[in-house]
Design brief:
Oligomer: single chain
Radius of gyration: 16 Å
Distance between the termini: 39 Å
Number of strands: 0
Number of domains: 1
Length: 161
Amino acid sequence: MSDLDDAGLLVQKCAELMRLRFLPKLTRGELFQPLLQKTVERFGKAGYPLLPFEAKTMTRLMVLLLEFANLSVTAQHIVDAGIYYVEPLMSGKVRENNDPLILPHWVDVILRAAVRDPRIANAPSKAVAHFAYDALMYDAVMYGFFEIERATGKTWAPKTR
C-alpha cells in the first residue's frame, strides 16, 4: 500500500484514522516545539546554525500549513488554505470524479507512513517532525514563494542555464 502511486487509495485506506485521530491534534500548541527543535537541529547539522528568529519564522510557516489541514479546529481562513485544507478529502466530500488526487507533500508522506504503522495517529506532532519534516519544509517553501508572488505580482522562477 505504501508504494502506491494513486493518492486516492491511500486516502481511502487512512481517511478515518486521519479525520478522527490525526487532524484534530494538529494544533499550534502541539506542533510548534517539536518542529522548532527539528528545524534548529536539521539546519545545525547542515552547517547553517539559525538565529532564533529564523528558526521561529520557518517553524511558524510550517505550523500554518499544518493548521490549514483541519480548518474546523483552527482559526485559519479557507481561501488562504488552498490545497492544504485536507479535511474534506478525508471525509470523502470533494472527490466526485476520477481525476488524480493532489495532496500536499507532507500529507502524502504521512499517509504512506500510516499505512505501514497506524500508531502514528497517536502522536501527530512527533510523526510529522520525524516522518514528514522534509516534505513539510518543501511545502512551506513553495507556499512562501506563492505568497510572495501573490503579494508582489512578480512570478518567481528558478534560473536556468
